[in-house]
Amino acid sequence: MIDLSPDNLALLTTLQMAFVSTVILMIIGTPLAWALAKMKSRLKVLIEAIVALPLVLPPTVLGFYLLIAFSPQSLPGQIWQQVTGQQLAFSFSAIVIGSIIYSLPFVVQPLQKSFEQLGDDLLEAGSVLNAGPIDRFFNIILPMTKASFITAASLAFAHTVGEFGVVLMIGGNIPGETRVLSMALFDHVEAFNYQQAHILAASLMISALILLSIIYLLNRQPSARNKKIVDKTSSCS
Amino acid sequence: MSNTLSLNIKCQRHSFKLSINQLINLDGILGILGHSGSGKTTLLRSISGLNKECSGIIKFNDKVLMDTKLKQFIASEKRQISMVFQDARLFPHLSVHENLLFAAKRCNKPKLNVDDIIELTELSALIYKPVTQISSGEKQRVALARAILSEPKLLLLDEPLSALDNKSKIALLALLKKVNQRLKLPMIYVSHHLEELQQLADDLLTLNKGEVSHYGKIHQVIHQLNHTELIKQQTSLSLPICAIDKKYSLLSLQLNEQQKIQLPYLQATNLKHGDVIRCTIFANDISISINEPIKSSIVNKLQATLVDIIQVDHQVLLTLQCGNQSFFANISAFSFDRLKLVKQQQVYMQFKASAVHTYNSFTC
Lengths: 237, 364
Description:
The complex is a heterodimer of chains A (237) and B (364). Chain A is an all-alpha fold and 237 residues long. Helices cover 81% and strands 0% of the residues of chain A. Chain A has a single domain, classed as Orthogonal Bundle (MetI-like fold). Chain A contains eleven helices and no strands. In chain A, helix 5 (92-118) packs antiparallel against helix 8 (146-161). Residues 223-237 of chain A have low confidence and may be disordered. Chain B has 364 residues and is of the alpha+beta class. Chain B has two domains: 4-225, P-loop containing nucleotide triphosphate hydrolases (Rossmann fold, 3-Layer(aba) Sandwich); 234-363, CATH 2.40.50.100. In chain B, 23% of the residues lie in helices and 37% in strands. In chain B, helix 2 (96-105) packs parallel to helix 4 (136-149) and helix 4 (136-149) packs parallel to helix 5. The mean pLDDT of chain B is 91. The chains are: A mainly alpha (237), B alpha+beta (364).
């Protein structure tokens, strides 16, 4: 096994956490966003508020309640321990679960908005052309809302990479397990090791900037492509 | 084999109620006529499976599509019933060709060739265009071709001409006739424009406040509707062309062995001897004379027997029999009294050639 420096280990843990969280978030967030987009019940407002809660709550509040829930004394923590044989609090799984809850609105909100804008008309058209629900999802919904899926996944990934408060509360600071980049940065600042802190901070900032630029570029592409087609056809006619 | 659609459904939503118990023969094109809010679209959506809020039984050729008592509901994608919507609903992320392939690929046992349907629906020139760059008329043609390629057992058309200009309407109507004749595909065509249905449908069903008010052969139902306020009173005819006079641009239709009807010949229509055309003569355009009119500029002069008289306020609707064909004339009560008309009286009907309307002359 390669010996990684503490900062590189933190980077690896961060990327692992962000990747796993994003995959799970997309799997959970898509049906949740779909259900919210189609829901007509009064419960919708409440569910939307719960999903959006991490946007307004200080991360430490969320982290505090998750820490209590994950402890072996509480029911979720006990169930986890019975199923996996391991403690949930201060584990990699805990920071993944925390990240999922914390980043849920970043996935659900753009997807819900795009599903609402998509409406039912095209899906009905697909349905009378013999396309079943899964077929309609992959061949109508997904291509029509591709940009929102890219945005949701990218925001979820970026937001998870930059997470600090929740991870600090429920993950502790265990190298190779729960010590992520933001914590490594905090440790460097506390130790007045500004040069290392600068390297981490600048790397995080540049990576975030590149990621956001890619999101905007991908979201801009369909209209740019359409423009090219228009130009091409008008030059042909 | 004859196709039948059995409907026994109820649908209640706020103040709107649909209640239909009707067995329908579907061997050609069934037209459904009704005002806005009469339940036309709700009925089509229930047949296609898009409306799940109805209760009752829907059967198509003995196949149960819905039976709420037995908790049976076949999803729309499994019904083999396709639909052309008012607004085309083409997939904007696909080209014209990809839209057509979307339908063709999802057909279990394809019998139709995509290229044949492209040719039939005259889409060859548009095939690789993005659907966002074609006109409304072209979009509806693509929607029709796409629906055909899903090879349904029944095709539903929900006011497909409503968003089109007159030229596109005439073209699409002709195309629908051609498709129906070529593929023998049963269709249900919903519209609140009687002239579209008069040109296209073999049978007509009318809906009023969510209930069936009339059902039968197209001309027969139109004549029944003359006694309601749903339509402008008229005579509806299907007659073969017996002569084309290109010098005077007149077309002659054979009414019976002795009698003919003349109407303007539209050069662009490419009609030929023997073609059957459908036409309408409004009751207000027919005048009555008790003596044979001689030396009149009016070209259509038919002897008929007065068989029915209905007076409403100051207007009198006369039913006249000309061989096997009924005609309807609307005259004032003043003229009716002056002529002293009685049932079984022999009279002469007169109407100008321009009073005989085909769909082209309605829309031009």
